[in-house]
Design goal:
Chain lengths: 112, 113
């Protein structure tokens, strides 16, 4: 599975957009980019995923570069409840076992 | 609420004992995953089942075993427990083996004393 690199920590002011980068330079053509977050030892929460097009849902937007070697998760208006560890995961598009491998993630702190 | 139910929420047991953790996946989901998260550690993939069959195995110790039953619920059995097995154990489920999101339960916190 392709390895991802994320900054260990970031701060964001409440109400501002939080932009969380992820590098996945070894991603292959059949691998999706997934984002999850974990709030203080709770179960990881699915945020969004994409293959090559930008995606948006009610929680966030995912911007994937044209070469697919990096992506950015955007939380448009960060709130204190968005303080969490955010995981960027690259996952093969196969049907032979498609488990998620979590790295160390980015600890996002939203500051009042 | 993800729809994935794990029981019990908390479990305290002694070294050398055996425990069983239970996971009920979301309605209709055929695939179940188990993860371990030790204190200050990342989420470690243990094992995946799909429709009753083992599909993938990660860093699961030989003292640990799992199964998925015909009603699709899953159990993770941990035996000969050691202090180092103290951790959060998460279960996740997804509908198929294809590329869909998986939803996680709230975990079982196991403390071995």
């Amino acid at each position: 599975d392709a390895k991802t690199t994320q900054p260990p920590s970031m701060d964001c002011a409440e109400g501002r957009a939080a932009n969380l980068p992820c590098n996945h330079s070894t991603i292959s053509g059949n691998e999706y980019v997934y984002w999850y977050r974990q709030i203080h030892s709770q179960g990881p929460q699915y945020i969004i995923h994409g293959l090559k097009n930008n995606e948006t849902n009610e929680m966030a937007s995912l911007i994937i570069t044209e070469d697919r070697k990096s992506s950015t998760l955007i939380l448009p208006h960060a709130t204190l409840r968005d303080t969490a560890v955010y995981y960027c995961i690259v996952r093969p598009r196969t049907n032979t076992g498609n488990q998620f491998y979590f790295g160390t993630g980015t600890s996002l702190t939203v500051i009042p | 609420d993800s729809g994935v139910t794990q029981t019990p929420k908390h479990l305290i047991t002694a070294t050398g004992q055996r425990v069983t953790l239970r996971c009920s996946p979301r309605s209709g989901d055929l695939s179940v995953y188990w993860y371990q998260q030790s204190l200050d550690q990342g989420l470690q993939f243990l094992i995946q089942y799909y429709n009753g069959e083992e599909r993938a195995k990660g860093n699961i110790l030989e003292r640990f075993s799992a199964q998925q039953f015909p009603d699709l619920h899953s159990e993770l059995n941990l035996s000969s427990l050691e202090l180092g097995d103290s951790a959060l154990y998460f279960c996740a489920s997804s509908p198929t083996l294809l590329n869909t999101e998986a939803f996680f339960g709230q975990g079982t916190r196991l403390t071995v004393v």
